Prior knowledge:
Elements: E1 3-8, H1 11-22, E2 27-31, E3 38-42, E4 47-52, H2 57-62, E5 68-72, H3 73-79, H4 83-86, E6 87-92, E7 98-105, H5 114-128, E8 132-136, H6 139-149, E9 154-158, E10 174-179, H7 183-187, E11 190-192, E12 199-201, E13 203-208, H8 215-228
Parallel strand pairs: 1-4, 1-5, 8-9, 8-10
Antiparallel strand pairs: 2-3, 5-13, 6-13, 7-10, 7-11, 7-12
The protein binds adenosine-5'-triphosphate and 1-O-pyrophosphono-5-O-phosphono-alpha-D-ribofuranose.
The site of 1-O-pyrophosphono-5-O-phosphono-alpha-D-ribofuranose (PRP) has 12 residues, from strand 10 and helix 7.
Pathway: Amino-acid biosynthesis; L-histidine biosynthesis; L-histidine from 5-phospho-alpha-D-ribose 1-diphosphate: step 1/9
Domain ATP phosphoribosyltransferase catalytic: 54-215
Protein name: ATP phosphoribosyltransferase
Amino acid sequence: MSVKLGVPSKGRLMEKTFDWFRARGVTLTRTGADREYAGAVEGVTGVSLVLLSAAEVPRELAAGRLHFGVTGADLVQEKLPLWEQQLEPLAELGFGHADLVLAVPKAWVDVDTLDDLDAVATAFRAAHGMRLRIATKYHRLVREHLRHAGVADYALVDSQGATEGTVANETAEMIADITSSGETLRANHLKVLDDAPILRSQATLWRSRVADLSDEERGIAAALMSHLGSE
Length: 231
Ligand SMILES: Nc1ncnc2c1ncn2[C@@H]1O[C@H](COP(=O)(O)OP(=O)(O)OP(=O)(O)O)[C@@H](O)[C@H]1O
Ligand SMILES: O=P(O)(O)OC[C@H]1O[C@H](OP(=O)(O)OP(=O)(O)O)[C@H](O)[C@@H]1O
């Protein structure tokens, strides 16, 4: 019987997540061999560490297999349409900041806003007989955003990485992806639309609203949360 805490097993969020917990008296460590995804928690008894991909944390929390988990708000909102019913955000961790944005080729000098994009998308379809392609891995969030903005003449193209390269590779006309420093967009001759980002994201600690807890686990969860509330 234990309270399960899921944190990213590698990638850009792992080290900073470990630092954030350490500053609050909870030490997370990877144990075992270099490539082994095993971990331990010191500072609160009864908590077990689950190391997994940041992209899988939302699903595991929503299924109740994790009680607590760290991942970006972008991944939660993209993967869980009903996230507010399933998860409670407990703390924004102050790192992993990234904006989900729409970006077009810098050469499109007449396109700076969603209204411009709407006009160009319609003209593109008329001229080419196909819809303007937007490469992204954030299908749900992008569709919802464009629906609200009244942009309809587009097709999403799935891109799970190196999304900014799809325009030069001619598999898409524009992209929707997260940006932090903006360097990747600049290097690939893309510019962000002037409108507000689709989403502002950062690494966040979540609690599953659906995971079952025994009385004993409830006590452990309360002890963990009281640690994490104090620096
Ligand atoms: N350049 C960036 N700067 C800051 N945060 C980022 C950046 N790119 C992605 N993130 C955030 O980091 C989180 C994890 O991103 P992602 O799923 O791409 O994993 P990763 O860090 O590349 O690790 P993995 O090796 O598991 O894929 C997401 O919430 C995302 O918003
Ligand atoms: O604005 P920047 O600071 O340049 O960061 C943004 C880049 O970081 C992420 O990619 P990642 O490094 O995870 O590689 P990926 O494209 O393979 O997902 C994201 O998808 C952007 O490509």
